[in-house]
Amino acid sequence: MFVTTAGRVTDTMINKARSVAEDLDIPYIPRRKKSISQLQNERGGGCIVAGNESIRLFAFGEEEPFFFHPSSAMFRVKRLLGGGYDPMIEAADLRKGDSFLDCTLGLASDSIVASMVVGNIGNVTGIEANKFLGYIVKNGLHSWHSGVGELDAAMERIDVVHSVALEYLQSLPDESVDCVYFDPMFDIGIDESEGIKALRHFALHGGIGGEEIKEALRVARKRVVLKDHYLSKRFEDFGFTVMRRKTAKFHFGYIEKN
């Protein structure tokens, strides 16, 4: 992995690229009018491209980058602000002041919605095993301006941690988080946004199994929540109460602690 700049290079881009390279301890490679694919072939790996206003992550040999965008969180937050309903919030039974641990951060859409609900007296932590992906998302959460004050504040409050979910869970005390949440990559394909397709190139596909659920149940005070494909066997295997939705390709399940 290396860092370079967008095509029309400016001093701002160069400074940003050097800063990203230093943060991630990877090389900065000047663009010198070469294409991304040329640079990748020369270096033999993926890259991060720093523009004036964005940072994008390119998998080796891929033309479509991963970049941060609030995605579905934007309309979900607006719906909640208007008095509407969100199935993830219901499954988690989240309230103002709660703590929420997202073990599969990804694009952070669910963490953003959770952060808006728990407010500034609660807290949301997102775990991302891929340090490059986590860096892009953390940077985006702290710099994106949506024009919706509650959404921007919710993004800024999220704490992004680079770790494997199981290892992080094992480091936490018993009953130290109100809700532990999992949203693993579906093994069964569904129609996906471009953002999710790009995310798949970087997501770690170790899966969520018995060890993760056992640790989550130890750490959670209130609920452990799983979002998964409607055909997934994980709901039954681990004893989740499933909130079935007739037209949805994925369901939410929860295990109540007390």
TrEMBL record:
It comes from the Bacteria. SUPFAM superfamilies: S-adenosyl-L-methionine-dependent methyltransferases (SSF53335). It holds the Pfam family SAM_MT. Gene3D superfamilies: Vaccinia Virus protein VP39 (3.40.50.150). One of its GO terms (molecular function) is rRNA (guanine-N2-)-methyltransferase activity. Signal peptide: none annotated. InterPro entries: 16SrRNA_methylTrfase_J, SAM-dependent_MTases_sf. PANTHER family: RIBOSOMAL RNA SMALL SUBUNIT METHYLTRANSFERASE J. This is Protein-L-IsoD(D-D) O-methyltransferase. The lineage of its organism: Bacteria, Bacillati, Bacillota, Bacilli, Bacillales.
